[in-house]
Amino acid sequence: MKKLFLLLLTAFLFIGCSSDEDTIYDYIGTWSGTYEGADKGNWNIVVASDGKVTGTMHSEENNENYYISGRLSESGDLNAVVGTPDDGEFKGSLNRDDKNGNGSWRNSIPTPIRTGTWKGEKNKK
After folding, report:
1. What pTM did the predictor assign?
2. Upstream peptide bond of 112 is cis (omega within 30 degrees of 0)
3. Exposure of 125 in the CB half-sphere (CA atoms within 13 A)
4. Could you tell me which of 119, 92, 118 has the C-alpha nearest to residue 37?
5. What pLDDT tens digit does each residue of the chain (125 aa) get?
6. Contact predicate 32/22, CB 8 Å
């Protein structure tokens, strides 16, 4: 009976000690960087513990700010919209290991539609 109990206890320990590879906690905090293409400027986002993402893009060409709102998956996939209502998108991925991110953006305000790429990193505390 003791052997069966120890065997079950060991099995539960292995199950309970699984890898934390896919957790949102590695991404929580402020990320920032630059974007370029048909427009250029700076961006910053804050990743919350529930995966919600909020932030802004600041256009150097128009001297305007555009609101970013979306979600980050536990694997680092970023899916956000630009503007309110959504006038564009800010998509890509954040990397938990090297704390870098990159992706693409699109904004239809002001017209014509502008697109490009972005890159950045997690801000150090």
Report:
1. 0.79
2. yes
3. 3
4. 118
5. 655 555 555 555 544 444 445 689 999 999 999 999 999 999 999 999 999 999 999 999 889 999 999 999 999 999 999 986 678 999 999 999 999 999 999 998 877 899 999 999 999 86
6. no
